[in-house]
């Protein structure tokens, strides 16, 4: 089981990937899908959990909307940076260092679980186990918003074509990328469409959006291409 050692050692303890702002798509899908939750509850009574919250970029945004927000991350440094950031911004949220595989929360505690490219960090079977654990802490009728890289992502295609670029763990799952966006992270699985129905078999799926950001010209000094599924569903 990969418990993000590199995220701690190579990324957050080196003050890298300290994101302060949510990605644009996250804001759009949050506002578009939050209306699926029962409307009679006050925002402060709606409990949201972000899995793999990193440095609290999404947590800050959701807390500022008035929700009761929790985040977990397996990196000690990410949690420390997240707590300092929230304090400096005078935003309240609860951040705990823990792993997807064993969440420190009681059954059916949350109304919404959010995952932005964090649950993809594992083999397919470990991701499935992690979603089972996430389902445990989600209320029936509660919602999931998940972002997962697709197998059309350029780094998945490159790694499948070039065996020197990364170590292949299993189909569309790689570790030890030596270049690119996934360098210095432990492991990543790029998901195929059909796999989504296995991972999210506890959900009544409301939306699957294939979001691709495709660069059509670059001089190679910068690129900004990625391909992801955005999944919204409600627990059965
Ligand atoms: C791509 S970052 C996403 C951060 C944040 N969600 C965002 O949108 O900016 C993935 C995060 O997942 C965390 N992570 C990876 N594997 C984990 C595990 N098994 N348990 C808990 N956190 C994990 C990493 O530490 C990292 O912060």
UniProtKB/TrEMBL annotation:
Signal peptide: none
Keyword Methyltransferase recorded: yes
Alphabetic keyword roster: Methyltransferase, Transferase
Residues of the Methyltransferase domain: 48-142
Gene3D superfamilies listed in its UniProt record: Vaccinia Virus protein VP39
Family matches, as Pfam families: Methyltransf_25
Single GO MF descriptor: methyltransferase activity
Biological process (GO), any one: methylation
Keyword Electron transport attached: no
Source organism superkingdom: Bacteria
This protein's name: Methyltransferase
Protein species of origin: Arcobacter venerupis
């Amino acid at each position: 089981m990969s418990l993000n050692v590199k995220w701690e050692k190579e990324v957050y303890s080196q003050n890298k990937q300290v994101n302060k702002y949510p990605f644009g798509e996250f804001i759009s899908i949050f506002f578009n899908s939050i209306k699926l939750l029962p409307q009679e509850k006050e925002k402060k009574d709606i409990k949201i959990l972000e899995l793999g919250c990193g440095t609290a970029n999404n947590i800050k945004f959701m807390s500022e909307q008035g929700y009761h927000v929790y985040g977990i991350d397996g990196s000690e440094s990410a949690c420390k940076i997240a707590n300092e950031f929230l304090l400096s911004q005078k935003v309240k949220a609860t951040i705990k260092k823990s792993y997807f595989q064993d969440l420190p929360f009681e059954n059916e505690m949350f109304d919404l679980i959010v995952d932005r490219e964090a649950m993809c960090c594992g083999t397919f079977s470990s991701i499935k186990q992690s979603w089972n654990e996430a389902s445990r802490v989600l209320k029936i009728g509660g919602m999931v918003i998940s972002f997962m890289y697709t197998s059309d992502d350029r780094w998945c295609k490159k790694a499948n074509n070039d065996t020197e670029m990364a170590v292949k763990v299993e189909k569309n799952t790689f570790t030890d990328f030596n270049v690119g966006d996934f360098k210095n992270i432990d492991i990543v699985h790029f998901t195929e469409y059909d796999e989504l129905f296995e991972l999210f078999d506890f959900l009544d799926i409301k939306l699957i959006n294939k979001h691709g950001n495709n660069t059509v010209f670059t001089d190679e000094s910068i690129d900004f291409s990625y391909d992801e599924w955005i999944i919204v569903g409600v627990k059965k």
